[in-house]
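#struct-pred

JT: dropping the chains for the assembly here, can someone run the whole complex?
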Amino acid sequence: MSGFKARYDEYAAQVELELERLLPLPREDWPESSRPKALAQAMRYSLLSGGKRLRPVLLLAAYRTLREDLAPALPFAAAVEMIHAYSLIHDDLPAMDNDDLRRGQPTSHRAFGEATAILAGDALLNLAFETMLGSGLPRACQAARIIAEKAGAQGMIAGQMADILSEGRSPDPALVRYIHLRKTACLLTAPVMAGLTLSDAGQGMLEAGETYGRELGLAFQITDDLLDLSGTPEQTGKSGGRDAALGKMTWPAAVGFDKARADASAAVDKAVLAAEGFGHQAPFFRSLALSLLERVR
Amino acid sequence: MSGFKARYDEYAAQVELELERLLPLPREDWPESSRPKALAQAMRYSLLSGGKRLRPVLLLAAYRTLREDLAPALPFAAAVEMIHAYSLIHDDLPAMDNDDLRRGQPTSHRAFGEATAILAGDALLNLAFETMLGSGLPRACQAARIIAEKAGAQGMIAGQMADILSEGRSPDPALVRYIHLRKTACLLTAPVMAGLTLSDAGQGMLEAGETYGRELGLAFQITDDLLDLSGTPEQTGKSGGRDAALGKMTWPAAVGFDKARADASAAVDKAVLAAEGFGHQAPFFRSLALSLLERVR
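RK: done, full complex below.
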């Protein structure tokens, strides 16, 4: 497990450098610079404000199953984090979850105003595609397509829409699962499958990647729901009971606390099983899935 | 000119069918369907609500310079219209231009609420990339990259940001030009260059395309500003004097009404000159540029 932690931190550190490289702060404001400084500042604020970098780490770890040198995959890894950051900015908006804090800092619209926050989100989504398509990798188009599908109207955005539409309704396990699979699992499956695609993995490995991402996503969201119920603000970085305050449909609310804990364990077990498909990277993916359960222990 | 009109309408009609094909309404609501019906409805509302289809027509006309069969380029043409539609949805939001009407209909957030409007915009941008990357065209990746760059934080979004930041400030020609080049011209240049790229055009033609799109964009925005000052709601589809009410920096406000009219003419002249680079499609591109001036005659 300690080897896992070191490897994870090594991946995350490379992602951090790549993000900084891809989004430098312009020295001049417009019209001298091609990018208004306020826009770049808001993009950097959300993208470079810490976070676990789980999605880009998944992409790099998947790419590593068949490739030694990580460097070519770094733009793609950064792009997935841009999509994650955009989704958080838009999710936090007053018309959506109306959150004031994210990772202990004011949310984008609290720091920069709503208009800038909306545009910074748009710009990060767009920059993700610019970055992937500019990477020059032989299978960039296919990998970017996977990410687009998982992030889109039948993937992550469908989950966000369903999440908002179902607020205040009585919890229904089928709907909660629909939401979790899309809102959370899609953007964990996407980097695993994109990383494998970029490394030219075969169909069997891609199927293992899809299962792994799905189960990791379910486990991740259920443990998140459990933490929101029982965790301290120090553990979660946000105020507790937020889901209940918003009338969110959570898994514990749908099936009960004990069943939710058991389901999180079962999803981790399935992810651990799927991790066997990742060759010499199997131990890393296994440890990553197991580490989720430590959050709610 | 009448041949031009018939050709334009023929292109636009094909775009209309392609948009309908790419975004069908789901029959079931979630969790049965993979896409929440409310999201699909909002996406369709903005995408299929008419409009001149100028951007996709430009893409098809550019593709036709070197290709006979338009069919392979249709998904790309539709994708550019999706990006245009998303930008209008987000632009109309209360935090941005706070518009109630668009093409004589309630804006997306008035019809569906703000949360759905934000997500429908996000989903249309994302679907544009899904569509382009799924088109299977040999040069899809390069063409999509051009569109991403022109639509992004150094292109259209930079223009929108600058437009909002400059509201209420005294008009400065350099800033107004910065805004018009990005907010308007970038998304006219993008389809011309993407269409040429998809048809495998050479460097000379691409340069003509860049000039044409830029000058068409400037002429388009200046005539739009002039119409906002002098046009009737019937001509413009929106309430007159909207720019002044929002404190927008317009070209007539920066340089005067007469100079603005002369500048629109000069930009059209430059576009007409650049149109010579489009081979047998030159007459179409020439007529299109000239048709802009009719709006303010």
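JT: nice. Residues 14 and 73 of chain B are 11 Å apart (CA to CA). The two ends of chain B are 16 Å apart (CA to CA).
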